[in-house]
Amino acid sequence: MYIIEGQDISVRAGKSRILEVKRVGLEEGKVFSVIGPNGSGKSTLLRVMALLQNPDDGCVYFRGERVLPRDRIRIRRRMAVVFQEPLLLDATVEENIVTGLRIRGVDAASARRRAGFWLERFKVAHLSDRWARALSGGEAQRVSLARAFALEPEVLFLDEPFANLDAPTREALLLELSDVLHSTGVTTFFVSHDFKEVAFLADRTMALMEGLPVQEAPPQRILDYPACEKLARFVGIENIWPAKILEERLETLIADIKGLTMVVKKAGDYEYERCSSVGDEVKIALRGDKINFIPLDACSNNLEIGCCQDGSIKQNCWNGRVKSLFAFGNVIRMTVDCGIDVNISVPAQFMNAFKIGDNISLYFSIDSPIILKK
Ligand SMILES: Nc1ncnc2c1ncn2[C@@H]1O[C@H](COP(=O)(O)OP(=O)(O)OP(=O)(O)O)[C@@H](O)[C@H]1O
């Protein structure tokens, strides 16, 4: 049974749909995340599940019981929410934590003890007498997290808590939060548009696009096998090409991409079988970091590399010419013209190994391409 569950949730603004989610549920002790681009409805779903906003249709169940309007405040006190902008009271750091506990009936001495413990845990105990509104963004978010955990909630809601923090602060806080989530085992609903955060923290992820769930799975699975083109782009897959399935051969599908042949492994634990019929027009996605390269014409485009004795093919091989190169942090983004543009990510040490115009052979496993659902 889910600790909290939403059914047939629909939120509209005038005539336009903001959110339409048939079912969403949080398992006890797990971290459930919602990912999606700006405006996809993540925060709206969080507000509905945290009982901060009524949906236009649908209902929320808490521990199996439908939440009625008269129950909302009582149940909300069993939850805690941390927002992107820390909503701290105009008071000292300690008072910010103690006040919430006192409202929930905790005696003054216990409230101070709990505040001390959680401020220590989030490494801000030294700030307890400071004025909360004078803290830096990172300090304020640590205090918000300490305040939320001090409430000992049954469900914790986190709405992009790291979005405003610089990269080192975000990374440090992410590690600390992960540690606290594991040690407390608190059920968590985590909203983010950053897949790295989600992959690090979450057990399960719902991807939202324009208010609709497009996939729900463990984060790594979404990263490896996104369900649709928009999601593939959102998770950063650099190559998405229209293709046509030409034939099935042994355990593979042979696809044509503007005259180039690609072999894709047919069997797999992801759902593209329904796209696999000969003659289908599909989209094929391929991550740039799954593509290897040799700086010479080591093979030709007829896939001879990786061809086994039984006639099966383990690798694709395409030849092309380097069209553009640019450094992006510690990787190089290279586009190779193979008849179609192929974007690949190359470790920075190869920066001087190629120049624009060089001939290059690309090869990638038949496991790497993903046939996307339409
Ligand atoms: N009260 C409202 N009236 C009209 N439109 C709204 C209202 N609240 C939200 N929206 C719209 O609904 C959509 C979803 O908003 P929401 O904040 O849930 O998205 P989000 O995925 O959390 O976005 P972000 O990542 O930018 O925070 C947006 O297009 C937003 O403009």
Automatic annotation (TrEMBL):
GO MF annotations, alphabetized: ATP binding; ATP hydrolysis activity
Ranges for domain ABC transporter: 4-235
InterPro entries membership: AAA+_ATPase, ABC_SmlMolc_Importer, ABC_transporter-like_ATP-bd, ABC_transporter-like_CS, P-loop_NTPase
UniProt keyword Metal-binding, yes or no: no
PROSITE patterns cross-referenced by the UniProt entry: ABC_TRANSPORTER_1, ABC_TRANSPORTER_2
SMART domains, per the entry: AAA
Keywords per UniProt: ATP-binding, Nucleotide-binding, Transport
Descriptive protein name: ABC transporter ATP-binding protein
Organism: Biomaibacter acetigenes
Lineage of producing organism: Bacteria, Bacillati, Bacillota, Clostridia, Thermosediminibacterales
